Amino acid sequence: MLGFTGCGTPQDLSKERLGMHFNPVAAPAAHQGARLVRLAAASLASAVMLTLFSTGAAQAHHGFDDFDTDRLYYIAGTVSQVRWGEPHSHFTVTVDGDLPADTPERDLPEGLRDAPDSDPINAAPSFSGSHDELEVTIAPPSFTGMWGLDRELEDGERIEAVGYVGRSHTDEFRPVVFWYEEGKPVNQVLNEELPAKPLPVPYPGGDAASGDADQGSPSAAADSEGTSSTTVVWATLGGVLVAGIAGGAFYLRRRSSRA
What we know:
Elements lengths: L9 H8 L8 H36 L11 E11 L5 E7 L19 H9 L9 E6 L2 H7 L10 E8 L6 E9 L3 E4 L30 H41 L1
Parallel strand pairs: 3-5
Antiparallel strand pairs: 1-2, 1-4, 2-3, 4-5, 5-6
Helix pairs in contact: 2-5
C-alpha cells in the first residue's frame, strides 16, 4: 500500500502534477465578469436598436424628399393597379381630362384646417402635366387606418387628392390629403402639418421635377436639413458602437490584470 502522509490526497497530487491550481476566489470573479460582459453586450445591442429606430423614424418623417414640396397640385381620377401594404401603398390614377382650374371646396382633416396648411391646399392649381396616369404613393395601412381609411382602395374607385409631383419622375405623385367616397378626407402627413411651406400661386417659372428648381428654394433647404439630420443619426450610432467596444475592451483588460 502506498503512503501519502504529509503529501495530501491523491486528487491533490494529481492536480499538482497537471498544474491545475484551484483558486476559490477566481471562479466567482470570472463568473461575475462574464455576467457583466453579457450585460454590456445587451446594453450595446439595445442602444444600436434604439438608434436604428430613430434613423427609421427620421427617414419616415422625410418621406416627401423625392417630391417637389414647393408646389401643391390637385388631381382627380380613377384608381387602378392597387398595391396595398408596408412601407407604403401604391396605386395608379388615370387623371380626369376636365379638371377644374384649382382645388374644389372640400372638407379637410382636422389637423390640416389651420390657415398655414388649409390655404395652400385650397389654392392648389390642378395638375397640368403631360402624363395621363400618375403613380401615387400614400402612407401604409398602419397610418391610413388611423387617418380615415380603414380598407384598401379598389380598382375603378374614384379619388381626389392634393399633393406633390416627383422631382425627377414627373409621373409620380405624393398626396398630403386625398378624398374618397365622394369627399371623405384622409390625412397623409406626419405631425398634421405640411412638410414645407409652398410657393405662392401662381407658381414662378421652373419646375423641380424637370430639374429647373432654384436650389435656394424652401424644399431644397429642407432636403439639406434632412441630409444633415440623417448624418447626425449615423454619426451617433458610430459613436455608440465605438464607445461600447472600447468600454468592453477596457473592462476585460482590468479584469485580466486583477486576476
